[in-house]
Write a structure and sequence with these properties.
Length: 312
């Protein structure tokens, strides 16, 4: 008679083994999704251009020539120049509807006699059943200041220094520790205003070409953004932007923002590469700001974006 050796194993050990195998399969599945997510989203890899402001998202990302709040730290630090008062702004993105992905950010501005400084960060993490799989974080410090200003025009410059960190917190299916890595990146931006109604902006991300990993170093994404914003009359802002990231196709974004009364604004926008439609709204009262946006996607589910800010 052939003996079934598994009959000698206690049932609780068989159940535990099955549970571990299911967890390993789930971790492997989530890891595959994380690897495929940048491709499906039209991205190049880690630390991609994930928009951190629902106001910017509501305008389809056409924000480089607007950049007039704390999130200028991420979109164009030259926009920090001239911002008055202290402020803090935090956001959370329900990224593509995946409950194992979390994307959050925070930024704060500090006006001084030498221009406006800002500090902030972002965190993109993945977890499954309480197990942290990977974390992608950025800590940023930026500074924007005015180069020239007269009655009809102004020109500002800004820069930001980013500390990037990537950590694989869980072991691989094979039991290997994938480790972590850090590097520094430098961003620069320019913002100009003509006759108070037209603004133009330029932004370059990671101009020092940072690399992450050892010994197999990976280039972090670099991109250049140029845009123009125009306010044809009070309460209306239109913005057109062109983005070029590494060897990807040129991306065009167009957004508009309308003020509805004294406390509410509505937003909408379109972009290509990939094709997306964005809508959103914001409200402000006595320094408190609440923003929301929804962004569709040609391949993935849509993303909901929420933010709360306070200026004083």
């Amino acid at each position: 008679m052939i003996r079934n050796e598994r009959n000698d194993i206690p049932r609780f050990m068989i159940a535990k083994e099955a549970s571990v195998k299911r967890l390993e399969m789930a971790v492997a599945a989530v890891t595959v999704v994380l690897l495929l997510l940048p491709c499906a989203a039209g991205a190049s890899g880690v630390f991609d251009n994930l928009i951190l402001s629902p106001r910017a998202r509501g305008m389809a990302g056409a924000f480089v020539a607007v950049s007039d709040d704390e999130t200028a730290l991420f979109t164009n630090p030259a926009g920090l120049a001239g911002q008055e008062g202290y402020g803090i702004y935090g956001s959370y993105v329900d990224l593509y509807g995946y409950d194992f992905l979390d994307l959050g950010s925070v930024a704060a501005r500090i006006p001084t006699a030498w221009g406006t400084f800002a500090v902030g960060g972002r965190l993109l993490s993945a977890e499954y059943q309480g197990v942290d799989l990977t974390s992608e974080y950025t800590f940023a410090v930026g500074h924007g200041f005015t180069l020239m200003e007269d009655v009809h025009s102004s020109l500002s410059f800004g820069y930001a220094v980013n500390l990037y960190g990537l950590s694989y917190d869980a072991l691989s299916v094979g039991g290997e520790d994938l480790g972590s890595a850090n590097t520094l990146g430098l961003d620069v931006g320019v913002l100009g205003t003509l006759r108070g109604r037209t603004r133009f902006g330029f932004f370059m991300k990671n101009i020092n070409n940072p690399k992450l990993g050892d010994p197999d170093a990976e280039d972090l994404p670099q991109w250049f953004t140029a845009g123009v914003a125009h306010s044809p009359y009070g309460g209306v802002e239109t913005s057109l932007e062109l983005q070029k990231q590494d060897d990807e196709d040129l991306r065009a974004c167009f957004g508009v923002e309308f003020e509805v009364g004294d406390y509410v604004s509505v937003r909408g926008g379109l972009q290509n590469q990939p094709n997306r439609l964005s809508v959103g709204f914001g409200t402000h009262w006595q320094g408190i700001r609440v923003d929301y946006s929804y962004t569709s996607h040609a391949v993935l589910p849509g993303s909901h974006h929420f933010a709360l800010g306070y200026s004083f």
